[in-house]
Amino acid sequence: MRFFEYQDQARRATRKLVAGFVLAVLATVAGVHTALALGWLVLRVLFGGDLPFPAYFFSVNVGVTLLLVLGGWWIQTSALHAGAAQRLAHRAGAREARPGLSHAEQRLCNVVDEIAIAAAMPRPQAMVLPRVQGINAFATGWHEDDAVVAVTQGALEKLTREELQGMVAHECSHIHEGDTHLNMQLAGMVSGLELVHDFGITLSERGGLALLVGWPVRMMGSFGWLAGRMLQAAVSRQREFLADARTVQWTRSRDGLGGVLRKAMTEQCLARERRERQRPLHPALHHLLLVSDGGRGSNWFDAHPPLAERVRRIYGRPMPALPLTTIDDGPQARVADRPPPAVQGPFTLV
User: Fold this and answer.
1) Is 204 domain-assigned?
2) Which residue has the higher pLDDT, 45 or 171?
3) Contact 173/246 with Cβ under 8 angstroms?
4) Does the N-terminal or the C-terminal CB of the chain have fewer CB atoms within 10 Å?
5) H-type helices in the chain, by residue range?
């Protein structure tokens, strides 16, 4: 895998998409003002005479729109600062990993330690989603110091140690590259754009003159919200490619993360055959998951690229899905993943 080349491509694409996101916000603000100005001109035609624009017409339009966008962003992101990573993980059903509970969780903690050392980053909190049987994981946290890496029970049971390393390295890459912070910022801006749309709906439902004001705000808010969602999803897809490439760089193994994605392909195929939808996790985690819990990565609103494309980039060619097998690591667990034995006394100091 040409991981350095893929990393550069993903970073360049991200910069362009973030710039597009900023332009979408500015276009929404300008569009609201333009639509309201056109509405005022319609009033002038309908009622005749010289109907001047109200005082501070431009300033009020722009100010209120920015207040809604930035206010929604602030409300959304203010809840995601220090300590919020663990709260979000707990809301999704995760708990702290317990090394003494099973060899699988001991192995997870060891792998998290290893990847943190390899990445020269603070060790994230290892957590487990015990009620989720699908193969998945997510990382969240405003900064590296309060980050969380959560892995599903299904991943612990179905992945080899090498594959678990690939999964954890992928999530640590998101933390190291600031993807969790970026995703939270973009989610806050999308929330602000949605607030403009909701404000327009509220105005239009009141009727009268408010209806004339509400519809332009509603339409431009819809444009900004949809554009923001599409750009946020596009940024997320590029960051997935970046994390995949970084994972191969750190682990020096294609079969680690590649095996995870190929087994996830099998899960998705089985779910489609049974016409089942994988159990969705908390909505706030949609852009943070390793594997999308909905959609196939084939439309503009999908936060993840298609699994087949990710696998092709890792291996340099298409690869088939892998069968799902339960990893029996009980009595045959690696010695390195076993907790150290208790030292028995008494002792003699010499």
Assistant:
1) yes
2) 171
3) yes
4) C
5) 3-47, 57-78, 84-91, 103-119, 153-158, 161-176, 179-204, 209-251, 254-273, 307-315
- Do 102 and 199 lie in one domain? The reply is no
Distance CA 205, CA 79 (A): 30
8 Å CB contact between 187 and 228: no
Does the residue 108 lie in any domain?
yes
- Calculate ∠ Cα 240-241-243, nearest 5°: 65
Residue 246's domain is classified under what CATH number? Answer: 3.30.2010.10
Q: How distant, in Å, are the alpha carbons of 97, 108, 135, 181, 314 from that of 101?
A: 8, 12, 20, 32, 34
Amino acid 279: pLDDT: 57
My answer on whether 170 and 29 are in the same domain is no
The domain in which residue 156 lies consists of 84-179+240-315
CB 14 within 8 A of CB 235: yes
Cis, peptide link before residue 331, omega less than 30° from 0:
no
Residues forming beta bridges with residue 126, ordered by sequence position: 149
Question: What is the dihedral sign for C-alpha 269, 272, 276, 281?
Answer: positive
The mean pLDDT value for 216-234 works out to: 88
Using a 10 angstrom Cβ sphere, with 0-12 exposed, 13-18 middle and 19 or more buried, the burial of residue 120 is exposed
Q: What is the pLDDT of residues 14-27, one digit of tens each?
A: 888 889 888 988 89
**pLDDT tens string 307-332:** 999 999 999 999 999 998 887 655 44
Q: What is the amino acid identity at position 285?
A: L
Instruction: Write out the catalytic residue numbers.
Output: 171
Q: Looking at the structure, tell me whether residues 253 and 163 fall in a common domain.
A: yes
Structure tokens at 188: 């806050």
Among residues 168, 162, 160, the alpha carbon closest in space to that of 128 is found at 168
| 94 and 120 in a common domain | yes
Dist CA 302 CA 272 (whole Å): 17
Same domain, 210 and 289: no
